[in-house]
Specification:
- By secondary structure, the chain is mainly α.
- It folds into 2 domains: 210 residues; 202 residues, no CATH class.
- It is 88% helix and 0% strand.
- The N terminus and C terminus are likely disordered.
Length: 422
C-alpha cells in the first residue's frame, strides 16, 4: 500500500474515532444537562455520585477486557477475534453483576436520593458495561464506524426516552437513570449482533488466566491511578458534600469535548501502534510527542473559551449547579491540559504493551492524588479538590514523557538501524 493510501486510510479511521467519541460523550452530556435542569443541586450531586460509581466499574472493565482486546487481538484473524470477544464480554457481564450487587447493598444502606440513585444504577449496569465493551471491540477490530453506529443508536434512543419522560412529568433521578440504561441496553444488543458474538460468562476465569500477565498490571494500575481519582471524588462527597461532587461533575461536562478528542486519539493510537510492530522507535517517539502537542493546543483554546461563558448561559444549561461548576472550572481546565499532554506518550506506551512501565507511573500517582484531593476537599471544599486534581496531573506529566523515552530507547537497541533525535 502506498504511503498516500495508508495515510488516507488512517485519517478515515481517526475521523470515525472522533465521531464515535462525540456521540458517546453527547449521550452523557445530554443526560447530565437534563438531570441538572430537572432536579436541585443535591439531587444532581446524587446523580453525580452514581455516575462516578459507574465510571469505576467501567474503568475496571476497560482494564481487563477492552485494553487486552486492543493490545493482544488487534491483528488477530476474524475467528480468533470473535472467540476473544465472546470470552471477554462474558467477563464484562460478570463484572457488571458483581458491581450491581455492591450498588444494591450501598443503595439499601445510604438514605435519601443518593441511595435511590445507586439502586437504579444497579439495574442498568449490565447494559452500560456491555455497550462499552462492544465499542472497545470495534476499536480493536479497526471498525470505529460500527462503534459510531451503536453510539448513534444509544443517543437517539436516549433522547427519545428522556423526551417521553419529560412530557409525562416523570423526571426523578432514578427514572432518568433508567432511561440512560435502557438506551444503552438497546445499543449493546446491536453491538453484539454486529460482532456476531454472544457473551460467555462461564469463560470469565479462562479469559483472566489467558491475559494474566497483562491484566495484573492493567488491573492494579487502574486502582492505583485511574481508580484513585474516582474514589477520591467519592470521598469528596463524604468530606464536603454531594453538591461538591456535583460541581466537579458539572465542570467535567463542560470540558466534555476535550474528553471526546482525547479519548478518540487514545483509542485510535493504541490499536494502531499495537498492530504496527514494524514501526521504528523514532516514529513511535514522534507519534507520542506530536499527539501531545495537538491535544495540548486544542485544550488551551477550548478552556479559554469555557472560562468566558456568560453566567446567564451557564445557569440555563446547569441551573443551580452552574455556580459550583464555574468556581472549579479553571482548576479542572488545568487538570485537563496536563492530562491531554500525557495522552500522547500514554497511548504509545499502551500500544507497545508496556503495562509494567505504565503501572509504575500510576503507582507513584495514586498516593499523591488521594492526599492532595482529600486535603483540598477538607480545607476548601470542591475548589480545593479540583486544584488537588490539577496539581497531581502536572506532577505526573513528566513521568509519562520520560517513560516513553526509556521505552523507545530500549526498543531502539533491538533495532540498531533506527535512531532517535538527541
Amino acid at each position: 500500500m502506498s504511503p498516500r493510501l495508508l495515510s488516507s486510510k488512517l485519517m478515515r479511521k481517526a475521523g470515525w474515532n472522533i465521531v464515535d467519541q462525540a456521540l458517546s460523550a453527547l449521550s452523557n452530556v445530554l443526560l447530565s444537562v437534563i438531570v441538572a435542569r430537572s432536579v436541585d443541586a443535591t439531587s444532581f450531586g446524587a446523580f453525580a455520585i452514581a455516575f462516578v460509581v459507574f465510571g469505576i466499574a467501567l474503568a475496571v472493565t476497560k482494564s481487563v477486557v477492552g485494553q487486552p482486546l486492543q493490545i493482544r487481538f488487534s491483528a488477530a484473524t476474524s475467528e480468533v477475534f470473535r472467540s476473544a470477544v465472546a470470552r471477554s464480554s462474558g467477563l464484562a457481564l460478570s463484572i457488571s453483576v458483581v458491581a450491581a450487587i455492591g450498588c444494591l447493598v450501598a443503595g439499601a444502606l445510604v438514605p435519601g436520593v443518593t441511595g435511590r440513585a445507586l439502586l437504579a444504577l444497579a439495574v442498568i449496569l449490565p447494559g452500560l458495561l456491555l455497550q462499552d465493551t462492544c465499542r472497545m471491540a470495534f476499536f480493536a477490530q479497526g471498525e470505529a464506524r460500527k462503534a459510531a453506529l451503536i453510539d448513534a443508536v444509544w443517543t437517539v434512543a436516549l433522547v427519545g426516552i428522556l423526551g417521553l419522560l419529560i412530557v409525562l412529568g416523570q423526571n426523578s433521578v432514578e427514572q432518568l437513570i433508567f432511561a440512560w440504561g435502557g438506551a444503552a441496553a438497546l445499543s449493546a444488543a446491536l453491538g453484539l449482533i454486529l460482532l456476531r458474538a454472544r457473551p460467555r460468562p462461564s469463560q470469565s476465569i479462562a479469559w483472566m488466566r489467558e491475559q494474566g500477565e497483562l491484566n495484573r498490571y492493567l488491573f492494579a494500575e487502574y486502582f492505583l491511578g485511574l481508580g484513585a481519582s474516582q474514589i477520591a471524588v467519592l470521598l469528596v462527597g463524604l468530606i464536603a458534600s454531594a453538591s461538591a461532587v456535583g460541581s466537579l461533575r458539572a465542570a467535567q461536562v463542560l470540558l466534555g469535548p476535550l474528553a471526546i478528542v482525547g479519548v478518540a486519539a487514545f483509542q485510535f493510537v493504541v490499536p494502531e501502534v499495537a498492530r504496527r510492530t514494524e514501526m521504528s522507535p523514532q516514529h513511535r517517539w514522534w507519534v507520542g510527542i506530536g499527539l501531545s502537542g495537538v491535544l495540548g493546543t486544542v485544550t488551551v483554546v477550548y478552556v479559554v473559551l469555557m472560562l468566558v461563558i456568560p453566567r446567564p448561559l451557564g445557569l440555563q444549561l446547569f441551573g443551580d449547579s452552574w455556580d459550583g461548576a464555574a468556581s472549579v472550572l479553571l482548576a479542572m481546565g488545568i487538570s485537563s491540559l496536563a492530562s491531554s499532554l500525557a495522552n500522547g506518550p500514554a497511548g504509545v506506551l499502551y500500544g507497545m504493551g508496556q503495562a509494567k512501565r505504565t503501572f509504575r507511573i500510576n503507582l507513584a500517582k495514586a498516593p499523591i492524588l488521594l492526599f492532595l484531593v482529600l486535603l483540598g476537599a477538607w480545607q476548601w471544599g470542591a475548589l480545593g479538590a479540583a486544584w488537588g486534581l490539577a496539581i497531581t496531573e502536572a506532577v505526573v506529566l513528566p513521568m509519562w514523557v520520560v517513560t516513553l523515552r526509556k521505552a523507545v530507547v530500549a526498543n531502539e537497541r533491538m533495532q540498531p538501524s533506527a535512531t532517535l533525535p538527541g
